[in-house]
Amino acid sequence: MKINRHGKAKILSPEEIQLLFSKGLLLTRDRTLMAVMLYTAARVNETVTLLTTDVYNKRGKVRPELIIRKSNSKGKLATRSIPVLEDLRTRLENYRPTYDNGYLFPGLWGKGHLHRDSACLILKRACERTGLDGISTHSFRRTALTLMSNAHIPLRVIQEISGHRNLDQLQRYLEVETDQVKGAIAQLSMLSPTEERQIEKRMFIDQRPTQLKQRDST
Question: The domain containing residue 201 runs over which residues?
Answer without folding.
Answer: 185-217
